[in-house]
Design brief:
This protein is mostly helical. It has one domain: ABC transporter involved in vitamin B12 uptake, BtuC. The chain is 73% helix and 0% strand. Helix 1 runs antiparallel to helix 3.
Length: 371
Amino acid sequence: MIPSVTGTPAERTVRRRKADESGVGRTKWAVTLLVLTALLTVSATAGLAIGSVRVPPGQVWGIVTHALGADWQQPDWSRARETIVVDVRAPRVLLGAVTGAGLAVIGTALQALVRNPLAEPYLLGVSSGASLGAVSVIVFGFTLFGPASLSVAAFVGALGALVLVYATARTGGRITSSRLVLSGVAIAAVLTAVLDLLLLTTGRGNEARAVLAWTLGGLGGVNWGTLWLPSTALLLGVGVLMVQARNLNLLLAGEEAATTMGLDVARFRARLFVLLSLVTGVLVAAAGPIGFVGLMMPHIVRLFVGGDHRRVLPTAALGGAVFLIWADIAARTIAAPMEIPVGVLTALCGGPFFLWLMRRDARRGTDRGVA
């Protein structure tokens, strides 16, 4: 954009400087996207290659292109390796990318909606609500919605938990950062206790153990037939949030400023709460509750691309996908042949990050009201 030539020399200088900074910001964002796209390609290749059976990267791409119908080279791999890459590891890597991207954009949106840098699905109890809904379906055999029953129940649980946390934290028409986080932790503890009670009292012991392992978060057991739902939820969530990126930017200035600029904050917040609960529920139903991805990624990418949600959302999605793919690689290789739940590793990374954020905000003395 060409700066205007009208105004005083000082005004023209300020406009020219802003235009230059905008150009530099766009360049830095483009470079960041290119780097993350390259990292995602490398990460996906590593996810397909690394495991109990090591497959050379060149062979991985040969198997993938062959499976896609591009027979550009003569197959020099065994049928067993092709099955491992295409049917076992590829769905798992894609679910990791989809889940990581989805959790990252959900965390980004939640932090803007409640104006709290500590907000994310796991800490606010949304993941716990989704887990309780999903486990209730498994324990009680609820199948009213057929194959989608698990996702529907997880969505209802996630939305209910989010509404409950928000209502509990709101006192005197205001919500502070500390009160929101404390409400989320308390609600999550109660929901987790109810979930554990369901598992302990169910008469199906083997099923209870499998569900308990699922509640720690993991990408195992996925297949091509179940990937379409979380992928669709991710595309829906990212698409809507990108359209609403400007309104998310308005909320950063405060509720009063956003209202002055024409945003119906209450309606906007309610609609996005439903959307974020839907996406969270679907992702939790597919991969279990995986925490702290939505906390870390938004803060990390803002260091590179700034605070504009038109840039933060796609960048956080790529960063979350890369992070969770590598977390899953570590989960299945660190203690091989035993597999560590990927949610355990993300918690080991996210816990210290959460404590650092709390200390940083304490030093700044920030405890801003949300609404």
